[in-house]
Amino acid sequence: MSSKTITSSLYDWVDERLGLSELAAFARHKTVPVHAQSFWYYWGGISLFLFLVQCFTGVLLLVYYRPGAEAYESVRQITFVMHFGWLIRSAHAWAANLFIFSILVHMFSVYFMKAYRKPREFGWLSGMALLGIASVFGFSGYLLPMDELSYFATKVGLEIPAAIPFIGPAIANMLRGGPEVGEFTVQRFFALHVVVLPALFLPLLGFHLWLVQRHGNAAPPSIEALPAAGRKSTPFMPNFLRKDLAMWLISLNVLALLASVFPWTLGKQADSLVPAPAGIHPEWYFMSPFEMLKLLGNVLPGESGEIAGLLLFTLGIVLWIFIPFYDIDKPSGQRGRAAHYFGLIAVFALLATTVIGYWTIR
Amino acid sequence: MNDQVVLVQDGNLAGSSEDPGEVRTRRFFLAAAGAAGLLYTAALAYPIYRYLASPEEMALSATAVTEVTLKDAQKLPLGSVLMFKFGTAPAMLIHHADGRWIALSAVCTHLGCTVQYEPQADRIHCACHGGVYNAYTGANVSGPPPKPLKLFKVAVSDTSVEVSRA
Asked: Quick check: B135 and B125 in contact, CB under 8 A?
C-alpha cells in the first residue's frame, strides 16, 4: 500500500467514527459577508486569541505563584528571580487589558450592526454574560500580586457590593473572607480566578462560538435589505480564516511589543497601616463607573447619591442586556433609531467619564 | 437564496497558470513563511523553557557547594544522627558510640529514597526496598543497592562540625 492509500484509509476509519467529512463540508460552505463594515468581524477572533494567550500564560504563572500569605513574595520571585518571569507576567497582564478592550470593541460593533436581532438573541446574551465574567476575572486577578495597588483596588471595589441595601455587607464579607482584605481574600480570589471563573467561562464561550457557526455573521440591516445579487460574501475557508490568523499574528506582535517594552510593574507589598498612595485610581475599564458614581455623589451627596447611582447603573445595564427584545426588526423597514442613539449616548458617556476620571487624578 | 450571493475570491487559487516564474515565487514565499514561523516558535519557546528551567539552574549553583558548616553539631550525643542538606541533597552526620564521626550521603543508591541510621543495629537501612549499608564506610552490605553511599570528610571544632567533599 502506498502512503497515500494508507492516509486515506486512516482518514476513512476516523471519519466513519467521528464524521470529519461533515465538519469539512460545513467549513467549505461557511461564508462571511463582505461590506464596508467587515473589519469589525475580526474583533471576536482577536478576543478569542487574547483569551487563549491568557490561558497559556496563566498556566505558566501557576507554576510558581503561591496564594495566601506568600502571594506577594511569590510574585516578586516570578518577576525578579525566575528567568523571563517578568515577561510571562507582563504578557498575562497586557493580554488581559487588550482582551477587555477587544471585547468592548466587539460588543459595540455587534450593537451598532444590530447583530443581536432575531435569531441571534442568545449570542448577545451569552456575550454579555462573558463580559460580566471577564470583568470579575480582571477584578480577582488584580488582587493576586498583593501589592499596594491591588490591596486598595480590592478594598474599594468591594465597597460596591457592600452598598447593596440589607444584604450588601454580608456579601462583601463573604467575598473578602472576613472584615479586612488579607491572605484569606487572596486565597479565595485565587480559587475564583483559576477554577470557578474558567469553569463558567469556557462552556459559555463554547456556546457563544457554536451560535456563531449556527447563525453565521450578521450583516448590518442596510446590507441585509439589499437583494441577494447585491450582497457579497467570501468563503470562510481559506479566505477569511487566513485574514483572521493574520489579525492574530498582528495581535501577538502588539502584545509582545507592549509586554516587553512596558513591563508590568510590581508595587510595594500591601500593608494595611500604610496610607493609600497619591494619585491612586481604578484600572481604565473601571474608571467610567467609578467616575459616574463620583459625579453623582457631587449632585446627590451621601447615601442617597450612592443608591441613586446604583439604581441608575442597574437600569442602564438591564436596558443594555435586553436590547434584542425591544429593538426588534420592524417589517415597515424602520431602522430602530432609538437603540442607535442609546448606543451613541452609552459610548459618549463611557468615553467622557473615562477622560474626566483621568483628567481629575490628583 | 444564499447560492446567488456573489463570492469574492482573493488571489487566483483556482485555474492559475503554472508558469515557472510563478512557481519559483511561490516556493520562495513558502520558504520565507516557514523560516518566519520557525523564528516565532523559537522566540516563544526559548523564554518559556528558561522560565520553567529556573529552579533547575538555581539547584545547579547549590550543588556546586563543596563544604557545609553545621553549627553546634559537635554537641551531637554518642550513638545519634543529624540529618542535613549538602547542597540540595540530604546527608547524614553520625556520632558513633565509639566516638567516631562519619558523614555520608543519605540518598540510597538504588532508587533515591532517603536512608535511615539505626543505632541499635549500628547500620544504615533503606525502608523503600530493604537496602542495608555499613554505617562506618557506607559500603552496600545487602539488598538491592548497587553502589556504596558517598562518604564525606568531617572536621570537628569547638563550635561546629565541618563537612566537606572527600
From this structure: no
Would you tell me how many other CB atoms lie within 10 Å of the CB of residue B43?
10
**Distance (Å) from the alpha carbon of A200 to chain B's nearest alpha carbon:** 28
User: Considering only CB atoms, which residues of chain B are within 8 Å of chain A?
Assistant: 1-2, 4-10, 47-48, 50-54, 57
Q: What is the band of A230 on the pLDDT scale with cuts at 50, 70, 90? A: confident
Q: Which CATH superfamily is domain B67-165 in?
A: Rieske [2Fe-2S] iron-sulphur domain (2.102.10.10)
Inter-chain CB proximity A84 and B5 less than 8 Å: no
What pTM did the predictor assign? 0.86
Is it the case that residue B42 has pLDDT exceeding 60? yes
Pairs of residues, one from chain A and one from chain B, whose beta carbons lie less than 8 Å apart: 55
Look up residue A229 and give its DSSP letter.
G
- Locate all alpha helices (DSSP H) within chain A, ordered by sequence: 3-18, 20-29, 42-62, 71-80, 85-112, 121-143, 148-157, 159-162, 168-176, 183-191, 197-215, 221-224, 241-261, 284-299, 303-321, 323-326, 337-359
Averaged pLDDT, A9-32? 93
Q: What is the DSSP letter of A231?
A: -
Residue A128 exposure: Cα atoms within 13 Å on the Cβ side:
15
The pLDDT of residue B17 is: 56
In the prediction, which pLDDT does B14 show?
47
- Nearest by CB: A84 against B4, B8, B50: B50
Report the residue from B1, B4, B51 with minimal CB separation from A85: B51
Report the residue from B4, B51, B52 with minimal CB separation from A228.
B4
Which is nearest to A234 in space by CA: A26, A33, A41?
A: A33
Residue-wise pLDDT for A264-317, tens only, equals: 999 999 998 998 888 888 889 999 988 888 888 788 877 777 778 878 888 999
Give the span between the Cα atoms of B73 and A189, in whole angstroms: 45
**CA dist., res. A87 & res. A89, Å (int):** 5
Question: B102 vs B8, which has greater pLDDT?
Answer: B102
pLDDT tens digits, A129-160: 999 999 999 999 999 999 999 999 999 889 88
ipTM of the complex: 0.88
User: What architecture (CATH level 2) is domain A34-278?
Assistant: Up-down Bundle (1.20)
Per-domain boundaries in chain A: 34-278, 281-362
- Please list, residue by residue across B127-146, b when 16 or more beta carbons sit within 10 angstroms of its beta carbon and e when fewer do: eeeebbbbbbebebeeeebe
Chain A residues in contact with B54 (beta carbon < 8 A) = 81-83, 85
